[in-house]
Write a structure and sequence with these properties.
By secondary structure, the chain is mainly alpha-helical. It is 65% helix and 1% strand. Strand 1 and strand 2 form a beta hairpin. Helix 6 packs antiparallel against helix 7 and helix 7 (188-221) crosses helix 16 (475-499).
């Protein structure tokens, strides 16, 4: 082992022509040269690109429901339903983008194509708003509704926003993975930078949304919709130009083909061999041809126990031996152990992924019930009114602060306590801490609601600002949600990137986005069920239109209880989970 470490250090300290050890290639398809590609030069380009693209996306999404009600004259229910469909579509498209990236196009090409679609959608939205929708001029404010529109004009609007959804959805899971690709995890220094990249990536995302939620949100709220959309389009165009400018610097993994067919091959091959007597040792299972992995840069996955039925797909029968001698191999009958382990990896990830959905339910309350709660509190300081939605800025500031605290204080401290040179808390441990903080956040929100009700006017008709309790009492719940994001979502990005096979990295990032999407749907379902049960016997329910007559605090406490149950299940799943085992890349290079 000592000689191996010495050899590794020598390899890392070679001259400028030293290549990466993780199998990445440059733009021309040649092995990536360490000093000429990737690392923080490419990483910073991608971080700035992410910040600009996020600003553009939330410049549309943050006030879309107001655009539908004020400009297109939709009622609140229809507008909320259309925004939910649009948001869900964004995350569905993330799976499409991840599939195309991992299977055929690669991450760079996928990001470039979907960013072009994103820009086209935003330009189309800006033009249609300026020319057709925002009529008469300066309409769309709080007290200045717009005129009715033709079916063609409305159709053009929906085409535009769904192009935005397609562009952002297909781009988002791949840009995070492309950024991680810029750091060779086989190099100790670059491996540490790769872990740090995910924290800064999430920070860039939040800083981009901060500008949208405050400055752009203010202009759009005042009726300057076309200006807000043009700023979003300009930001997306700058992001695209910056991304293309770094083309020659990026490192790439070659796409590894359709994963669905590989999964089906394992299931079919294992089913065909279900009566076969398995060998006692995993060494007798089919390892595959070495060039199959080396040609596309995919590392071999070592055999693990568990899901033993799937090992039958790698069982070499006498017929398979004859086929191999004749130089032919049917992968619907015999699969390499790496291919089998791919399926095992995804099956092991599913329980962990399911446990993150309840957390996403808590996270989505910031955009809905937290805002409604804030609107019913005292929102004025002298003559200045604080928009309730702007309180999410404290969440973003909390994210920035806790990323710094974790990276600079907590992580080194835990590392010294554990007496290891590696990272402090594991990704699974951080995700568990995120769930604990989310429970505390919901309890804090419930306590604030109890006091809000105590100082509220029960007989009000329009109950905005009906409580004398200041909206700033919401800061703890927003700050706690921000802290939980640093542990949960950043840990989740790192975990799925590290634990998915080389040919499914973008799919791992897409899992994070679909978790948020399902969190929205589960939250909607939960609110519907709570209202149906709590409105029996002619009661107003927990979340009525007039919050002063309801019990929003009970809903928050219910979410805290559900998250606590989810935490128990998560701990059990985390203890059961077995990490992916990759073959050491140095062995392939003879180091």
């Amino acid at each position: 082992m000592a000689s191996l470490e010495v050899s590794r250090e020598v390899k890392f300290k070679e001259g400028e022509e030293a290549r990466t050890l993780d199998g990445t290639v440059d733009f021309c398809g040649n092995p990536a040269i360490r000093a000429r590609s990737g690392r923080w030069v490419a990483g910073i380009i991608i971080l700035v690109n992410q910040g600009l693209a996020t600003l553009a996306f939330f410049g549309v999404g943050v006030n879309l429901v107001l655009f539908l009600t004020r400009v297109l004259q939709q009622n609140n229910a229809d507008a909320a339903n259309n925004v939910s469909k649009w948001t869900g579509t964004v995350y569905i498209f993330s799976l499409v983008g991840a599939f195309l990236s991992d299977s055929y196009w690669g991450r760079y090409k996928t990001c470039a194509i979907f960013q072009v679609i994103f820009v086209i959608g935003l330009v189309s939205l800006s033009l249609s708003s300026y020319i057709f929708l925002v009529k008469p001029k300066d309409c769309g404010g709080i007290e200045s509704p717009c005129q009715s529109h033709s079916s063609l004009e409305i159709g053009l609007f929906y085409l535009s926003i769904y192009l935005v959804a397609l562009g952002n959805g297909g781009y988002q899971p791949n840009i995070a993975t492309l950024g991680a690709d810029q750091f060779d995890e086989e190099d100790p220094n670059e491996g540490h930078s790769k872990v740090a990249f995910f924290s800064y990536f999430y920070l860039a995302l939040n800083l981009g949304s901060l500008f949208s939620n405050t400055i752009l949100g203010y202009f759009e709220d005042e009726g300057m919709w076309a200006l807000g959309f043009w700023v979003s389009a300009g930001s997306a165009f700058l992001a695209l130009i910056l991304f293309l400018g770094g083309t020659t610097r990026y490192r790439h993994f070659k796409p590894s083909g359709n994963p669905l067919s590989r999964f089906c091959q394992v299931i079919v091959a294992a089913t065909r061999n279900w009566r076969m007597k398995m060998p006692s040792s995993a060494e007798d299972l089919y390892e595959g041809v070495e060039k199959d992995c080396s040609n596309n840069g995919v590392r071999r996955i070592l055999h693990t126990d568990g899901f033993k039925f799937l090992d039958r797909a790698a069982f070499i029968s006498p017929e398979d031996s004859n086929n191999q001698e004749q130089g032919c191999n049917n992968q619907w009958r015999l699969c390499p152990i790496t291919q089998v382990e791919e399926v095992k990896c995804i099956l092991r990830l599913i329980p962990i992924w399911l446990c993150t959905i309840i957390y996403s339910v808590v996270f989505t309350q910031m955009a809905s019930l937290f805002v409604e709660q804030g609107a019913a509190m005292k929102t004025t300081i002298s003559n200045f009114r604080i928009p309730p939605a702007s309180m999410s800025s404290f969440d973003i500031l909390s994210v920035a602060a806790f990323i710094f605290i974790y990276r600079r204080v907590l992580d080194p401290l835990v590392g010294r306590i554990k007496k290891t040179d590696s990272k402090g808390l594991t990704e699974l441990q951080r995700m568990g801490i995120g769930l604990i903080i989310a429970i505390v956040a919901m309890i804090a929100a419930g306590i604030v609601e109890c006091y809000r009700l105590k100082y509220a006017q029960k007989t009000c008709t329009h109950c905005e600002g009906s409580s004398s309790l200041s909206i700033f009492w919401q800061i703890p719940q927003y700050a706690l949600i921000g802290a939980s994001e640093v542990f949960m979502y950043v840990g989740q990005l790192e975990f799925f990137n590290a634990q998915t096979p080389d040919g499914l990295k973008s799919f791992g990032s897409a899992l994070c986005m679909t978790s948020i999407s399902l969190g929205n749907y589960v939250s909607s379902l939960l609110v519907t069920m709570v209202m149906k049960i709590s409105t029996e016997d002619h009661m107003p329910g927990w979340i009525p239109g007039n919050l002063n007559k309801g019990h929003l605090d009970r809903f928050y406490f219910l979410l805290a209880m559900l998250t606590a149950v989810d935490l128990v299940v998560y701990v059990a799943c985390a203890k059961w989970y077995k990490c992916i085992k990759m073959e050491d890349r140095e062995n392939e290079y003879g180091v």
